Amino acid sequence: MRTFPNPSFTGDSADISRLVAEVRCGEVPPYTPSPSRANRALADLLTRDPGRLDPAAPDSVFATGPRPETGQPVPFLPRERLLTRDEQRTAAECFARVLAGGELTSGPAVTEFEDALADFLGVPHVVGTGSGTDALVVALEAVGVGHGDEVIMPANSFAATENAVWARGATPVLVDVDPDRHTLDPALVEAAVGPRTRAILPVHLYGRLADVPALVQVARRHGLRVVEDACQAIGVTGVGKYTDAAVLSFNPYKNFGLTGKAGAVVTRDDELAARARRFSYHGFDPKRKNVKEGGYGLNARMDNSTAAVGLGLLPRLTLRNYRRAFLARRYLDGCAELAANGSVLLPAFEPDHAWHLFGVRVTAGRAARDSIRAHMRSTGRVETDIYYPVLTHRQQTPLHRELFGQVVLPRTEHLHETVLHLPLHNDLSLAEQDRVIEALHAAVRATVR
């Protein structure tokens, strides 16, 4: 079997392997809230059991032994391994503390988590919500999107993006993507602006940031608002700093996954944050429950129990992102030969990427891509996937056929027909990754002539 050495980095690129080693041995501490916002729950946990969140504790992610055992399939995203065993213990302890106190829905952990996450992201305001979808709806309402408006967005995203627009009574306007980033093309966005356009909703696809500076310039020229769908991009510098708002998801499958559905609205705007807090909790005055300040609102606030788990796991987020970058760099090195001979196109290793997903594009087209996936599954025993299997304008509902039946997005469609996603998650071992790389090489040799 071929071997794939660990990557090394020089120059201005982040030395992921060095950073990982330093974090794990404790030389670079994981994130903790600033003293002014130190949360009581986390402080109590660390005081009572200092080793619980110790980054130097044994961690099987970088173990060289195979997991699962040799001959067993390498899963794409194993649900039982979304949290490590140590993370599961931390989550269980945090939840048990809240359960014992009975504050499962509302409680102090929500504000503490919001403050801690705001510190981490370097923004003034975070509003915790019940899901990423809730956060999208809340953010769009907060920037003024309503009935009859249009919102410009891409077609290659999860259904939550379009659903949030529909939920506000607005209509999605689908625009094609940049050929390199695969996120909204600012020039095409500007061409799509019309009299009813209210907002631009870029998606940081697979964790790679859209061209936010260019999109903000377009928005300013036309008096539009910009809300980032950053559900796959937590931890990337700049999220939420230059737009009206950004939206995060803490679904268990995300880079920072918790123990249920949760999300957040991130913003620098005081008034927008106040509107988001009010709308996300029945229109109530944030300081006076049951006293309405707005006409109506949603039951969309984050639960206290989920926020408590978030406080316990937040210190691990930086290491999680280092792990993903490390594994992404290793994929790029291991697949470099396939890229050099023109079989696949690889993503660029850029600092504006959270590596929520690792996609490779098969240059020979859709049939070859599908054959490679089948070969990797049957012969290599490696699972791959395609995010997202159905583009927005190709959904077969009466609504989609009526509005998007004539929509053609050549770049988006070409990406969709040629991309496949390799396993990349927080608990992927190097031995498993070696098997994935080897299976991809073998599949390309067997199927692409």
TrEMBL record:
Stored InterPro entries: DegT/StrS_aminotransferase, PyrdxlP-dep_Trfase, PyrdxlP-dep_Trfase_major, PyrdxlP-dep_Trfase_small
Annotated GO MF terms: transaminase activity
Region described as Disordered: spans on this chain: 49-74
Organism domain of life: Bacteria
UniProt keyword annotations, A-Z: Aminotransferase, Pyridoxal phosphate, Transferase
Family: Belongs to the DegT/DnrJ/EryC1 family.
Entry protein name: DegT/DnrJ/EryC1/StrS family aminotransferase
Gene source species: Streptomyces viridosporus T7A
UniProt lineage: Bacteria, Bacillati, Actinomycetota, Actinomycetes, Kitasatosporales
